[in-house]
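Structure (tokenized):
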């Protein structure tokens, strides 16, 4: 297969800073769309992959799965979009398309293994996939999304991971007018959970460990803030919530939040991967039919639904735009939670 060499930023190994390098993109085939990348969001998964925090990273690693740009080429059989359209690519660029999950628009749960936008198996060129820290990307049209033209394009980028990661559980658990939703953690995921839950008509509460997030949460649309380290405030919301979106990315005790669920309520973990510690107390779960669940991004149809909803309600991420050359500094700041609430790379800087 013919390829084109493009500029990108990637890591050569787990201890290396990201720096400029060249990668190959495949030629556009009948069902492919080529996108000039204009903006790419920076996700915690990018950092974890670059530094091999989860193991299994393939190098060179070129992260980036919050991609927004403009279509520059389409294959002869593409019907979904055309040259010149705005388009997005999220965390997925492939799946088997034949399993039950794929047939039900749940490609993120593909039984045969979905293909990640980066660090996934490149079934056409061999090797592994490269992400959005690059000049352009070529993707099968099924995995390309239409971007509403009325939204701030840079601020759309994080919707393709942070947005869909919180939208999917909100929709699965049927959040709407009258729902009482709480969010744990006000970072890249948490701030989108607040915005989207409010947009769906829910009464939204933020759980925060300290009072310094109160005004920020309310500015983003939260109706209430509960300080989770204050026993009186936690007792005051016992049995209150239908759904809790827990976005905290590290190990933490979820037992105190279980008590704040209404009967049949659910805590959905979207930020943390790993064992729960300390032990989970099942008594309040059994006595109130309460559930602990997990959720992973969303399928392509669901992601398009989310983008369309955001276009209708003018919902985007809160962002700080950076140059590609500043990505290593951005990673260090992200580890300190020193961003409100998502870095987005202006990819024009890669061409400078």
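Design, position by position:
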């Amino acid at each position: 297969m013919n390829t084109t060499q493009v500029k990108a930023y990637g890591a050569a190994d787990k201890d290396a800073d990201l720096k400029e390098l060249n990668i190959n993109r495949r030629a556009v085939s009948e069902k492919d769309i080529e996108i000039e990348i204009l903006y790419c969001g920076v996700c915690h998964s990018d950092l974890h992959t670059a530094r091999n925090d989860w193991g299994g990273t393939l190098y060179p690693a070129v992260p980036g799965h919050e991609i927004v740009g403009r279509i520059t080429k389409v294959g002869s059989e593409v019907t979904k979009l055309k040259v010149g359209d705005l388009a997005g690519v999220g965390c997925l660029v492939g799946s088997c398309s034949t399993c039950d999950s794929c047939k039900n628009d749940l490609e993120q749960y593909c039984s045969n293994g979905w293909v990640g936008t980066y660090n996934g198996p490149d079934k056409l060129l061999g090797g592994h996939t490269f992400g959005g820290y690059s000049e352009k990307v070529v993707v099968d049209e099924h995995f390309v999304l239409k971007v509403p033209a009325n939204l701030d394009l840079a601020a759309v980028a994080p919707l393709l991971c942070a947005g869909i990661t919180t939208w999917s559980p909100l929709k699965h658990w049927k959040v709407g007018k009258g729902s009482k939703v709480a969010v744990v953690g006000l970072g890249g995921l948490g701030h989108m959970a607040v915005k989207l839950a409010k947009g769906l008509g829910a009464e939204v509460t933020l759980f925060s460990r300290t009072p310094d997030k109160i005004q920020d949460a309310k500015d983003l649309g939260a109706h209430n803030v509960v300080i989770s380290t204050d026993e009186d405030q936690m007792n005051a919301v016992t049995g209150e919530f239908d759904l809790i979106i827990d976005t905290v990315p590290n190990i933490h005790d979820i037992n105190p939040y279980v008590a704040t669920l209404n009967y049949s309520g659910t805590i959905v973990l979207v930020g943390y991967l790993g064992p729960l510690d300390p032990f989970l107390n099942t008594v309040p779960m059994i006595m109130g039919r309460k559930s602990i669940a997990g959720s992973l991004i969303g399928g392509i149809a669901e992601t398009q639904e989310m983008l369309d909803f955001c276009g209708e309600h003018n919902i985007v991420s809160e962002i700080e735009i950076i140059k590609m050359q500043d990505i290593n500094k951005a990673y260090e700041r992200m580890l300190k939670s020193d961003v409100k609430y998502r870095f987005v790379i202006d990819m024009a800087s890669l061409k400078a």
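Reviewer-requested clarification: The radius of gyration is 20 Å. The longest helix spans residues 300-313.
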